[in-house]
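Work Package 4 report. The design task specified in the project plan requires that, given a folded chain encoded as structure tokens, an amino acid be chosen for each position. We show below one input record used in the internal validation round.
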């Protein structure tokens, strides 16, 4: 029997035994035999976990909440959803008096799921593509601390561990989840200080250099801990500090410093980006922060422009 006949018989066998679980590709290869593509999901319940896979716990929690809202509103399977359903859902969010940013986030989640379903072959069309997301004000400038405010917050904290947390958040620009996930094996000594390896957002690894002053404080703080020990351990539970504990530390220090703003650990990251962008090359700041696009990093230049046409006018 020729190879082509064997191939044809094998494919026919697959089609006969997989009719309920596969879909035939409409393209015809040169051999003249249609290919069989296994279905990746049969129901919405099977699709959603595939879409969420690999995302952070925080992202999964937010996406699940957004998608739950959407399915409750449309009350139909995803394959039955049409553009008007999406538009009506968008209008319903206005009635909840959500901010433009919150509404945009919810709709972005829905668009992401539908786009994923289309790429996977679960949906024939991406009906979410024409859906217009609401524009929203960029409030980044409202969350930028000055260098003086950062130092006030750090100086206001007297607890050695908490003070070191504040310093490391600012100097390294790490996210709070990245900080809490640090172990001592992530640190390595250098001639001019040290470095730490961060496993961050999007499963990306980056290396951040630390000045000698911070490195010396870290070494003293370690106090003989093993390489696998968390850098910042929880006293009440085994393992590392929880991000909510770090949030309380930052808020408490800001309150002591008289900073009447909703300061969070991420504000220290914003401060790092804003202040470093004025002093260091933008691509260096991008690499340190782990931004996928340099456009994200350049936003920090726009919120504190060095020049503006208003400076050239008089009243």
């Amino acid at each position: 029997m020729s190879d082509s006949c064997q191939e044809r018989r094998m494919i026919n066998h697959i089609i006969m035994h997989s009719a309920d679980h596969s879909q035939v590709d409409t393209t015809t290869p040169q051999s003249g035999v249609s290919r069989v593509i296994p279905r990746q999901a049969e129901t919405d319940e099977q699709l959603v976990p595939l879409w969420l896979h690999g995302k952070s716990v925080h992202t999964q929690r937010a996406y699940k909440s957004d998608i739950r809202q959407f399915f409750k509103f449309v009350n139909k399977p995803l394959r039955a959803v049409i553009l008007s359903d999406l538009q009506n859902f968008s209008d319903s969010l206005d009635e909840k008096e959500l901010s433009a940013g919150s509404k945009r986030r919810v709709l972005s989640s829905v668009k992401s799921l539908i786009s994923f379903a289309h790429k996977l072959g679960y949906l024939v069309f991406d009906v979410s593509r024409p859906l217009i997301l609401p524009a929203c004000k960029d409030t980044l400038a409202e969350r930028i601390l000055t260098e003086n405010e950062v130092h006030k917050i750090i100086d206001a904290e007297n607890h050695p561990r908490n003070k070191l947390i504040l310093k490391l958040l600012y100097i390294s620009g790490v996210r709070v989840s990245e900080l809490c996930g640090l172990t001592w094996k992530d640190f390595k000594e250098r001639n001019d200080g040290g470095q730490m390896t961060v496993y961050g957002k999007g499963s990306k690894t980056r290396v951040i250099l630390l000045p000698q002053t911070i490195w010396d404080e870290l070494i003293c703080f370690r106090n003989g801990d093993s390489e696998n020990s968390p850098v910042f351990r929880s006293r009440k539970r085994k393992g590392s500090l929880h991000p909510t504990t770090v949030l309380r530390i930052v808020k408490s220090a800001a309150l002591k410093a008289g900073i009447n703003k909703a300061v969070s650990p991420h504000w220290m990251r914003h401060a790092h980006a804003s202040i470093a962008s004025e002093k260091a090359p933008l691509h260096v700041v991008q690499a340190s922060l782990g931004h996928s696009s340099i456009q994200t990093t350049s936003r920090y230049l726009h919120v504190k422009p060095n020049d503006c046409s208003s400076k050239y006018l008089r009243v």
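The longest helix spans residues 100-120. Validation will be extended to a larger panel in the next phase.
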